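Researcher: Sequence of NAD(+) diphosphatase follows. Predict its structure.
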Amino acid sequence: MLEIGTHAHPSPHQDALYILLYKNQVLIESEERFLIPLSEFQPDANMRAVYCGQWRVTEDSAQDVFVCRFDTMPRGFREISLRELLFLHDEASFLLLSRAHQLATWDADHKFCGRCGSEMLSKHTTEHTKICPKCNLRHYPRISPCIIVSVRKGKQLLLARGPQMAADMQSNIAGFVEAGETLEQAVAREVREEVGIEVTNIRYAGSQPWSFPHQLMVGFFADYESGELTPAPGEIEEAAWWDIDNLPNIPNKATISGQIITQHAEWIRTQESNK
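Model: Prediction complete. Tokens:
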């Protein structure tokens, strides 16, 4: 489990663990092991390391974790996409990998000040921040809020597939929150825009970092109100109502999508059994 403390961020050291990135791919050893000790790789002269927190190995011990981005592919590793690796691990590893990738993206994308163009200075404090030495503008890791929603109609759940998804996978409606919009308004708008129906009884379900590249997914449950399913061209390949006892292939439970689908189906079963 990852612990994000408020103590001063350490510099890279021999006893830490490292998540290695190359061209936005994660470098792994055998059996998808992604936490690498310093003794097993040669640091690159241009390698940048960002502190992620402490990974609790046992109840009594924890190790510092850094994420490092390489300019050239180091020997002895193979590449795997972040999305693929996320789905191979449990939720604790999912959260660590998401945080590492988001911090590495922030570090790479904010080398220069967006206001005056000066090179930013990293501050090893109790927070992740970069400060412009000329105009004092501060940059913190960017977080973009998104909504994801499980919609119920009787004993059925709405599931859909976007163009980027595998052909055998079905998931929830999701999308970015617009400026000046509440999370609940975003839920109603995204469902309306992507599949043409209206929803009601929108309620919070949970949240999860989603590092593609820096989203925070906020999950909701909602009930169908009106309209006919009409997939938006270019956004949704197919959408349908699925009986909770005959669900298709859905994301695993390490993801918030898999979690809210499973939780919603279980809640519906409980409600039906109590009638």
